[in-house]
Amino acid sequence: MNPENNVPELPDLTAQWDAVEAEHRRLANIRMADLFAADAKRAETMTLVAAGITLDFSKNILDAGALGALHGLAKAAGVAARREAMFTGAIINTTEVRKVLHVALRDRSGVLEAGSGLPPGTMAAERERCYAFARKVRAGEWTGHTGQRIRAVVNIGIGGSDLGPAMAYRALRIFAIRGIAFRFVSNVDGTALDEALEGLDPATTLFIVASKTFTTDETLTNAKSARQWLLASGAGEAGIPRHFAAVSTNAKEVAAFGIAPENMFGFWDFVGGRYSLWSSIGLANMIAIGPEHFDAFLDGAAEMDKHFRTAPAERNLPITLALIGIWYRNLFNRATQAVLPYSEALSCFPAYLQQLEMESNGKGIRLDGSPVTHATAPVIWGEPGTNGQHAFHQLLHQGPEWMPIDFILPVKHLGKFPDHQTKLIANCLAQSSALMLGKSAEVVEREMIAAGVEPEEARRLAPHRAFPGNRPSNTILVDALTPARLGALIALYEHKVFVQSVVWGINAFDQWGVELGKVAARGVEAVLRANAGSSVSDPSTNRLIANIRN
Ligand code: F6P
Predict the structure, then answer these.
(1) 314-341, pLDDT tens digit by residue?
(2) Atom 16 of ligand 1 has which residue's CA nearest to it?
(3) Which residue is closest in CA terms to ligand 1's atom 2?
(4) What is the 156 CA–ligand 1 centroid distance (Å)?
(5) How do residues 162-189 score in pLDDT, each as one tens digit?
(6) Cα–Cα dist 171/532, whole Å
């Protein structure tokens, strides 16, 4: 790290990339089935376990040699040193000149907090403020302006101030308090707020305005309309403090909005928005599942942190997941990564990962200002299984280009229909197996004939019904989707993203790419609100404005 201007010296990884390329050439035509045939212990040796998470990465076009070269790349990139820099509070977010210490938020021992420079116990104290508030809401001691208990919590936020809380609520709903509805508003489209407020009584509704900067236009627009909705019910200005809490780093703007300081729950600039669920941004979740479960959530993440920080690279889940992603992104040039949770409760997890991965690693400039030498973040997409099998698995099995897949499977059903679980598990395992093994046209033709199909017809259909196979995937098992396991799962992906950013030499913790659109929107809005005649910079947009006006 170059202390003067915070620009780190990026190592030259040419030799390591060449070694990985050589491994790719060696394995380019290998079939995974042959790798299993050659090594009876493959499934066992390519399974790693940590913090209750099991990663089976045996169904990959990988062997010890390729993995060795990939680990050589990570080592030369300085993953271990950058990891220590993060955990100890170095300024690794060099374009915003900030530390990156979301890991300190879930270290309830307070050891990692020291790296933040905050007085010891500051994080625990703020968390306890949140917990005290959550207990009051859960117990009905926090009441609205008419003295009634809260029956609905509406979280107003967007990006990291929405996706994390919404995903965690969805994932842990089975642990949530009954009798309080939780809703999440993010889009500035009035439909979002309209639908969130549907059926709610202003007198028993609590709004949490979650915004790290408290300047995000969508969030403030929704918050102002929510305030109007409350006032229109006759609450009066004096009623506002009973129905609005704020989560932010910006006390000045919170006060300006009219939310009392005692209703503001804070966090700090060294916590990135998409890494902030562990902070006061998780307030809605603290109310939903309660402090004890939220502590377990934090502890699960802390357990994965400890594993990431101490496990040897070859047994390290985040490093392994990161390198497999780099293998397919950079050596096989796969532009997308599918994340398929076989779990309704994890239905919001792919959307959450889209911000975590694509806003962290969707970068083209390296830490030293030079262009990236390799492709960076893939497009993350996915829907829960088994639904995807009836939507896009056709492409996954028979499309000309396969894409990497993470299957995520919580094994134990926590709800009322455990007898369904065997089918869910069977489908998840069957998909990864079928993708890998495929079925040749010869076998297909033989099976059709054996089933009584005319040989001529069997021959005609065989190509259409054959499966190329050799399509890789990871399977991540979670014993049960508890708060602790969800914490560990999220931390696994956070650290995977971090390791990839180090190999690519980019800053995973800034997001300058969102600025241009925000500024342009203000310009277009001004034109839309002005009388005819004013225009913006490009003719297409002016034409669109004219069409819209008509
Ligand atoms: O998408 C840009 C972004 O700044 C995200 O990084 C952030 O999570 C989101 O907008 C919301 O920001 P805030 O929490 O400050 O309202």
Answers:
(1) 999 999 999 999 999 999 999 999 999 9
(2) 211
(3) 514
(4) 12
(5) 999 999 999 999 999 999 999 999 999 9
(6) 48
Q: How far, in Å, from the CA of 161 to the mean position of ligand 1?
A: 7
Per the CB < 8 A criterion, the answer to whether 351 and 384 are in contact is no
Residue type present at position 543: R
Taking 90 as the threshold, does the pLDDT of residue 8 lie above it? no
Block residue for tokens 């009954």: 178
Using a 6 Å cutoff on CB, does residue 432 contact ligand 1?
no
- Torsion sign over Cα 238, 240, 243, 245: negative
Q: What value does the mean pLDDT take over residues 377-399?
A: 98
Calpha distance 491→324 (Å, rounded): 17
Interval between CA 57 and ligand 1 midpoint (Å): 33
User: Distance between CA atoms of 351 and 270, rounded to whole angstroms?
Assistant: 23
Element containing residue 301 per DSSP (H, E): helix 283-310
Separation CA 493–CA 320 (nearest Å): 11
Any ligand 1 atom below 6 A from CB of 279: no
Beta-ladder partners of 208: 155, 245
Nearest alpha-carbon partner for 78 in 394, 355, 313: 313
Instruction: Determine the distance from the C-alpha atom of residue 240 to the mean position of all C-alpha atoms in its chain, rounded to a whole number.
Output: 33
**Residue labelled with tokens 């089976």:** 56
- Residue recorded with tokens 């975590």: 356
Q: Ligand 1: which of 156, 161, 184 to mutate, judged by most atoms within 8 Å of the beta carbon?
A: 161
Residue 422: other Cβ atoms inside 10 A? 10
Q: Which residues contact 241 (CB under 8 A, 6 or more apart)?
A: 259, 260, 263
